[in-house]
Write a structure and sequence with these properties.
This protein has about 240 residues and is α/β, with parallel strands linked by helices. Helix content is about 25%, strand content about 25%. The protein has a single domain, classed as Rossmann fold (3-Layer(aba) Sandwich). It is built from 6 helices and 13 strands. The strands form 3 sheets. Strands 2-1-3-4-13-12 form a 6-stranded mixed sheet, with no helix packed on it. Strands 6-5-7-10 form a 4-stranded mixed sheet, with no helix packed on it. The longest helix has 17 residues.
């Protein structure tokens, strides 16, 4: 079983690569294949157990879109066939229609989903998030956002999470993230999997890890429960 990590030399903001490190500590049988900007993606010829892409700078988004554009048909095939993807932070925007920014030509996305993004580099959005995912039952999802863009235009698309507190995918899209088969993309960033043990356990089963055990389980669950309790009552939840 192999996790393909796309472009870690630029897609590495907010400690997102710790998600992959944590998965390998939970399931040592998971191998990691690193695809750098000059490489042909592993997914172009094989079917990884998981394709992972983390957040990047705005200039990095253009580079990633350029590298992935020749593989759009293959990406669509893999998504339709149920290959697991986890996309975090602003990497989500690359898979939509376009990214707009005042005074600049729009960055054309991969067009795999219907939403589009609008940047405002003068105002950064920072917030906490609390949501639900059907497969996790009563276990909420918690996380953080720090972004210059919001997404618009496809409110009927399947969200990854149902928002309980915080901001969804964008002003017109209250659900958070994108879900299509086993493709999962979310604006939540940083150590998402360390923060959400139930989601991590679900993802490990999805990729077929044999007998996975959450690393540092006692500490992870204790921290998670404390964070959920705090997020349920904290004031000034987003700004």
């Amino acid at each position: 079983m192999t996790i393909e990590v796309l472009y870690p030399e630029i897609a590495n903001l907010y400690g997102d690569l710790s998600n992959v490190e944590y998965l390998t500590r939970c399931a040592p049988d998971l191998a990691v294949h690193t695809t750098r900007l000059a490489d042909t993606p592993l997914f172009a010829e094989q079917v990884p157990s998981l394709v992972y892409l983390g957040g990047t700078t705005e200039a990095g988004q253009a580079l990633v879109a350029e590298r992935l554009r020749p593989h759009v048909a293959r990406l669509r095939q893999l998504i339709d066939d149920g290959t697991p993807f986890l996309v975090t932070g602003n990497a989500l925007e690359i898979f939509g229609q376009r990214i707009e920014e005042a005074g600049k030509p729009p960055l054309t996305g991969l067009g795999l989903f219907g939403q589009w993004a609008k940047r405002d580099m003068i105002h950064r959005h920072n917030s906490l998030y609390l949501g639900q995912m059907t497969e996790l039952g009563e276990a909420p999802v918690v996380g953080f956002k720090s972004q210059f863009a919001m997404s618009y235009g496809d409110p009927g698309a399947d969200p990854l999470f149902t928002t309980r507190r915080g901001v969804g995918l964008g002003p017109d899209i209250p659900g958070e993230g994108i879900r299509c088969h086993n493709f999962m993309a979310t604006y939540l960033l940083g150590p998402l999997l360390i923060l959400n043990p139930a989601f991590t356990a679900y993802l490990l089963k999805l990729v077929g890890a044999a007998d996975p055990t959450l690393a540092y389980a006692d500490q992870i669950w204790a921290s998670y429960r404390a964070r959920v309790a705090e997020f349920q009552v904290i004031q000034g939840f987003s700004h």
